Amino acid sequence: MFTLLFTFLAMCSTLIGGYIAIAARRQIHLLMGLGAGVLLGAVFFDLLPESLSVAATQGWSFRFVLGMVLVGFLIFYLVERLLVLHACPEGDCANEVHQHVGRLGSIGLIVHSTLDGAAIGAASMVNWRTGLLVALAVIAHDMSDGLNTILMVTHGEPVRRRDVIFLIMDALAPVAGGLLALTVLPPPTALAIFLSFASGFFLYTATSDLLPEAHRRSRSVKVSLAAIAGIFFIAVAVQLIGR
């Protein structure tokens, strides 16, 4: 019962974030900067520390985990290069390529949201207070997941119906993850590897996609400040949650 309630609230948080990204199109350059900062903050204050923590409990070398981050980064880089070379040999459809890469990135967010829901479900099976604590953490950053899902799949262009499908999938992911946790939990090794790959994906998306596009749309220092604000937001959220 608590699992469904908490994951439903996480779903609502994701939808609100996606709505903000759709409604505030005039400030899309600032949203892109903010989204990049949120991704960078999530990597260095959430995903990567968590993957290193899981790796330590499994007796793995930290170099292996960091190597997985690099592999994730390179996979995204090579996918984009291959799309450019084969789909756009004349270099005249860069935005379409970015949208393809963005959809791949949004899939990473969807899987991450599923794991968030599984964490809520696992914590709720301990007791409702533990489930509530984990749920508050997920709800706090799922709004940024919805925001980034829209930014990734649209790349600043008008939202299409199929783009909204990715947002809906991301919103439903915590609920699916919570239900999954009630039946089977993913092994720690799979969790560590996924978090490492996701870190590489998000590093590439933030530094090679969202930030460059935000600065292309506006040279204002506000873009940089928005990125810093996104990093700061995640850092503070993780710190508060960790207490």
Descriptive account of the structure:
By secondary structure, the protein is mainly α. It has one domain (2-242). The protein is built from 8 helices and no strands. It has helices at 2-23, 28-58, 62-87, 94-126, 128-154, 161-181, 188-217, 221-242. The longest helix is centred in the middle third of the chain and has 33 residues, at 94-126. The chain is globular, with a radius of gyration of 17 Å. The chain starts with a helix and ends with a helix. The model is unreliable at 85-93 (pLDDT under 50).
What keyword list fits this structure?
single chain, globular, 87% helix, 243 residues, mainly alpha
Beta strands, count: 0
Overall helicity: over 70%
Beta strand %: under 5%
Overall structural class, as computed from helix and strand content, comes to mainly alpha
- Gyration radius from CA atoms, angstroms: 17 Å
Q: What's the total helix number? A: 8
Which oligomeric form is depicted?
A: single chain
Largest β sheet strand count, sense and barrel closure: none
Mean pLDDT: 78
State the separation between the terminal residues, measured CA to CA: 26 Å
The sequence of SSEs as H and E is: HHHHHHHH
Q: Low-confidence stretches at least 5 residues in length (pLDDT < 50)? A: 85-93
- Please indicate the count of domains: 1
Tell the overall outline.
Answer: globular
